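I have been asked to look over a protein record a colleague put together. This is what I was given:
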Amino acid sequence: MQWILGLALAAAVFIILKRWGALTPEKKKDAAWKTVLVVGGALLLFMVLTGRVHVITAAIAAVIPLLRKVPSLLKYAPALARMMGREIPDPREYSGQQSARTPPSGSEMSEREACEVLGVEPGCPKEDVIAAHRRLIQKLHPDRGGNDYLAAKINEAKQVLLKNARA
């Protein structure tokens, strides 16, 4: 029985070395990583089954090599967010941070749009505008789970209505 196992091991080593020699340097690098991961995973599994390592520790150790793939997976974050029903801005759409004081679209908001944003009637008192702004900004501020775009729209609507109320 030992002879058979020895011959099988020798044949396996011979085949592996023959295929290793035929690989390009790039494929050798990939094969080396895969070999390290498979051998490490097998060793980790053996240690868990024999009781030398706790299962949670083994799971954490198994995830560590996959962390090098995180940067390449981040490019799928916008698509994943859209599938889950959330919209996040694509960083390629604009070059820098937008100020909350300037309109995101670059055009001036009308009074009607400002009233719709804040949920007030046209010609309402200044106190109603301030109260509606405060109520909305507390819900939609970026520090509380909102986003920059909505906060900028709310701030712009307040400015438009207060400017028109003074004039």
